[in-house]
Amino acid sequence: MNKKKIIVPFIVLLAVAVYFVAFRKDKNLRYIPDNADAVVLIDTKKLTGQYLFSLAMHPSRWSGKTKGKSSGSLKDSGVKIPDFLQIFHIKNTKFSEWYSVLELKDPRKFIAFLKRQNFADKGNNRFQKDQIFLMIEGDRCIAGTSDLAFAAIQRQFLQTSANSVRDADQLIQNTAGSISFISGQEIQNFSIELNDDEIEIKNNSNPEIFNTVASKSQKENHFLELKLDQENIRKFARFFNKSLADSSQAASLKAIADLEQVNDTIISYGYDDNFNEVEKKTIQKILQPNYIIDIKSSDPGKTWAYFQSKKWINGESQFTAIPFQPNIITRNNSRVVIQSTRKQVILPPQLKENYIVIRNSALLYSSLKTLSITEKRIVSDIDYIMYGNKAQDYWVKIKAKKGDLPLILRW
Q1: Nearest 5°: phi and psi at 14?
Q2: Would you give the DSSP letter of residue 325?
Q3: Rounded CA separation 210/192 (Å)
Q4: Contacts (Cβ under 8 Å, ≥6 apart) of 237
């Protein structure tokens, strides 16, 4: 009887503790500016729970090597881990610029952590490592892939007492993460789901269109294959050139590309012992794509004129905006076609839906010299990346190669 009196309260207290540690979340999002047009949310508690479950199911990882104390972990860095990590993009800034505001439990401990991680001290509590920029003020830190908006973010969040607060339920629904696009009062949410060997980003659970695209991807073996209608061209053009889609009069776009390693001859000149000029030939291996790009245009003449105005067509009818030469650009009464000339590529029959499929290639990641060992390992582990769209339904899948461990333990 006495044991029951002890055990029952213990179980209740344990259940309460588990609820507060694993399930109860602060859903007040305080660090999303009013002029944000895109927000990425990461549910850190859900992700941690998923990691611990995967770890429990794979005992081989229990005795894995851990990082030395000199490097430290984020948990011991002096940062307060939020229930929802808020990463945002500010309207009218470059697509590559993303920011986040972090709360610090111990700023001095965090600065010491940054030094151990080889962040360069830029002065005035600013730090940088590669393309990660940080600014510390008091018990908060602004992090970003750029520091251009730091002053504006500082004014809004670090020097203002009253900030608008969003509810996490507006942006995420019981998934590991979400991407939300904000336009005024309209919010379009995409869930991010981390599975054993894939990451899915989607706004609809109906898999019909995506199964069709995935089925086709298994039959073909091109490095790149895509088909986009005018609306999708406009969406992707925003990342590069906002006027490109409308100015080019493009109604649809089809393309395929394959990678090949070829020998490139470099000719240089030197002098022999008698000061006679001597030609020297050096052979190096380079990555060369073979491709065809078919642009269906509402007015091919205007499309051609636009390319000429951008100086993308030279006197030999080569499309110079694509750095991989040689190629040739031609037109007829309905389309403009750009294709490599070293090896002919023919467009296969394509689906009606909008899609992009990029398959991994050993030639690709072996040529990425600037990547770290960890980054090369992650890239080499990817099987393909796929995008699909039909009407208002969108879907992106990053598929990894089959492995003994789930992605959350691999990456």
Answers
A1: -65, -40
A2: -
A3: 16
A4: 244, 245
Tell how strand 126-129 and strand 382-390 pair up: unpaired
SS3 for 309? Answer: helix
Residue 172 — φ and ψ, nearest 5°? -145, 145
- Residue 271 token pair: 């002098």
| Residue ranges of domains in the chain | 26-186, 196-410
Nearest to residue 336, comparing CAs of 379, 382, 390, 293? Answer: 293
At residue 15, the 3 state secondary structure works out as: helix
Q: Which residues contact 55 (CB under 8 A, 6 or more apart)?
A: 61, 62, 409
Q: Which two tokens stand for residue 149?
A: 């908006």
Contacts of 402 (CB under 8 A, 6+ apart): 197
Q: Is the previous residue joined to 326 through a cis bond, with omega within 30 degrees of 0?
A: yes
Q: Tens digit of pLDDT per residue, the chain (411 long)?
A: 555 555 545 454 444 444 444 557 899 999 999 999 999 999 999 999 999 999 999 888 887 554 444 445 677 789 999 999 999 999 989 889 999 999 999 999 999 999 999 999 999 999 999 899 999 999 999 999 999 999 999 988 876 666 789 999 999 999 999 999 998 889 999 999 999 999 999 998 766 767 777 776 667 788 999 999 999 998 888 776 666 767 788 899 999 999 988 877 777 787 777 778 888 878 877 788 999 999 999 999 999 999 999 999 999 999 999 887 789 999 999 999 999 998 888 887 777 789 999 998 888 776 777 777 777 788 888 999 999 888 888 999 999 998 889 999 987
The two structure tokens encoding residue 202: 């989607």
